[in-house]
Write a structure and sequence with these properties.
The protein is α/β, with parallel strands linked by helices. The protein has helices at 2-10, 12-23, 32-48, 96-99, 114-133, 158-167, 214-226, 266-281, 305-321, 335-342, 369-385; strands at 52-59, 65-75, 81-87, 103-105, 108-110, 141-147, 170-173, 176-177, 183-187, 189-198, 236-244, 254-263, 289-298, 327-330, 345-347, 351-355, 363-365. It folds into 2 domains: 2-187 and 300-385, Zn peptidases (Aminopeptidase, 3-Layer(aba) Sandwich); 189-298, 2-Layer Sandwich (Alpha-Beta Plaits), CATH 3.30.70.360. One of its GO terms (molecular function) is carboxypeptidase activity.
Length: 390
């Protein structure tokens, strides 16, 4: 395992330079110009690493462009196809990179997207370079996919991710390790729900009885939805936005709720969603009707035997390079959920250690880069060498 660490160390200076350049590009979800500029950088580095690169423009369900998916491929001599999955987009608006530029302090890098997921994506590319430098090409094909829309549910990238997930044997996802170093072995399923309530406007003083108050219906529905918390283990339902009405002397004829549903298990996810549909269809106020739209439903990625075998292999590689490997489940969803649904064996959190994602304090532990790149490269090689069924 020593050569893995040495080869990863040889890539460290290039990794630092690339990270600074990539973080300097504003690439928030929907910022097509910035996302394509970020993809241009990654494409240049992938081509220099001897990978064949394809790009595909993607759009959301309403046809709005979201940027390009970049897919880089390298052929090997083995039989297993391995996918490395990261994303280019961040949650930050244009101007953030200039207002809060990349910096290094006390062994940590800071900047928008430094951990989620630019540091992880670049670790994937560095692992490809390590494998190439060491002549470890026991895979049939090594594929690096970089999506532009993960932070908004991969609404445009889903078809391609599902195709890739069905084609490969293993998907190693490049979200950064948890701040304590844990890999990620399971994720909650998530659905973004939008409820529209339509009532009837009326003068609140003269003839309120002629109205049908959508605001009141929304309030009652919010209470009913909140009561679902705790009905199933690990299921959470959060009404994050309620908009209704416009004037105090008018009975509100319209209301809108945005709801976050999360669950660990597919059965509980589907049961909770069915109950939410029932509540929305149940009149909370006479004359008010509800409609439910489900946006970017992402099923749970549940723990299973295939994931356990991958974590065991990661532990074996970690022991060889002196890096203890542990893993956890997390309530956040990611492209890993979609890849697992498509049929790949999945392990996530294989980027460097980072934390405070989606905040001005987001950081990446630079001391973790070399061992984590070595772990990732070693895991690819171990998966290809292992006779275990995955």
């Amino acid at each position: 395992m020593g050569p893995l660490l040495a080869a990863a160390g040889d890539r460290l200076a290039a990794y630092h330079d690339r990270l600074a350049r990539l973080v300097a590009v504003d690439s928030g979800s929907g910022n097509v110009e910035g996302l394509r500029a970020a993809a241009d950088l990654v494409q240049t580095w992938c081509l220099a690493a001897g990978m064949a690169v394809e790009r595909e423009a993607v759009a959301d369900p309403d046809g709005r462009p979201l940027g390009d998916v970049l897919v880089a491929r390298r052929r090997g001599r083995g039989t297993r196809r391995i996918l490395l999955a990261g994303h280019l987009d961040t949650v930050f608006p244009p101007g953030t990179a200039a207002a809060r530029p990349f910096r290094v302090q006390d062994g940590r890098a800071y900047g928008p997207g430094v951990s989620d997921d630019k540091g992880g994506l670049l670790a994937g590319l560095a692992a490809v370079e390590v494998l190439t430098a060491l002549g470890l090409d026991g895979y049939a094909e090594l594929v690096l996919v970089c999506t532009p829309d993960e932070e908004i549910g991969s609404t445009g990238s889903r078809p391609l991710l599902r195709t890739l997930g069905a084609e490969v044997d293993v998907a190693l996802c490049l979200e950064c390790a948890r701040d304590n170093g844990d890999l990620v072995s399971a994720r909650k399923g998530v659905a973004d729900l939008e409820v529209t309530l339509r009532g009837r406007a009326a003068h609140a003083g003269i003839e309120p009885e002629r109205g049908a108050n959508a605001l009141l219906a929304a309030a009652r529905l919010t209470v009913a939805l909140d009561a679902l918390n705790g009905r199933w283990p690990g299921v959470t339902v959060n009404v994050g936005l309620l908009e209704a009405g416009g004037r105090p002397n008018v009975v509100a004829d319209r209301a809108r709720l945005l709801i976050d549903l999360r669950a660990w298990r597919t059965g509980e996810y589907e049961a909770a969603l069915a109950e939410i549909r029932r509540l929305v269809a149940t009149p909370m106020v006479s004359g008010v009707r509800g409609e439910l739209a489900v946006h970017a439903p992402t099923p749970p990625w549940e723990p299973g035997a295939r994931g356990r075998r991958l974590t065991e292999l990661a532990g074996k590689v970690g022991a060889g390079i002196g890096l203890p490997v542990s893993h956890t489940a997390t309530g956040g969803c990611a492209d890993a959920n979609l890849l697992a649904e498509a049929g790949a064996a999945v392990l996530d959190g294989l980027g460097p250690v980072g934390g405070d994602d989606h905040s001005p304090a987001e950081w990446l532990d630079l001391d973790s880069v070399v061992p984590r790149v070595a772990l990732l490269a070693g895991l690819v090689d171990e998966v290809c060498r292992s006779g275990q069924e995955l």
